[in-house]
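## retry 2 of 3
previous attempt timed out at serialization; input unchanged, resubmitting
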Amino acid sequence: MLERLTCPLNVPPGCGYCSVPALYGPSRSRNPEAIIEEIKDMIRYGVTRIVLSASDILDYGRDVLVEPAPLTDPKHPPPNIEWLRKLFNGIFNIDEVSKNEVHVFLENTKASLVNETTAKLLGEYFKGSPIHIGCETGSINHAILIGRPSTPKDVIEATKLLRKYGLKPYVYFIHGLPGQNIETVKKTLEVMDILGKYVEKFTVYKFTPIPGTAFEKYPSPPSAKVDRLSRAIVEEARKMNMKFKKQLIGKTVTAVIVNPYAKNTEYNVAYTLPHGPVILVKNARRYYGFKALVKISNVISDRLVMGEVLKVLSNVRLRALKRK
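## retry succeeded, writing output
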């Protein structure tokens, strides 16, 4: 804690734009048995998609290695493989999970903790799962200035490893960050081009000066529609995401059909299992709550695709109501 009280340029522990340290404090790991029981309860209520949400799944159990001190160093100690494997074994020994009736996904990890061992471990249990990893900027100097614990090169190497072991990396970038300039954007576009060979999707956020962060007093940047540098990042991500989505046309996926699409109720939203794009299915109201085979027919945007029901597989909603 004493060594991590401040990062470069007096940025508090964690990245300068991130509110997690201020809101939640250092990472603390819940007991594996408690997590497993919670997942079982969710399954009893009919949940079929479960995400292990955390700022970094590889932080799980690291706090145990430094107790009673708080966990604040993003690199040391290394991941607690024993705790991770205990949690994953417990989850995948749940009957519905082992039968692929319920799908469990990862949310986030940081490049600073991804290595051959950890990537292989995640791939062993979560092959095919999306996993989000932050890059934020393609400039090494910019990454240091904003307090990043890893460089763009680290992110590239981590993404390669995660892909090697069967995961599907989503990479975050942020436009409008303090210090953004022509050079940082140029570097960011170069890194995005390299990452395009390994990632499933790019997610771009606008920088927001959040209270409690090192950058809380910075002005909110203009939108990407106004700022040409930010627009370059957003448009590159959109272009590459469209390219990724077009590769899905003609493919058949398993999906759960849920509520009507808010912007056009002629369509229902469908969520791909075990992982994939959000699908809009026309005239599918009668399939609400059903698991079905859906053929992807078109790309609507970099976020949405269109599909049609080929075959109904099961009534997920009815099963949930029976369990209640």
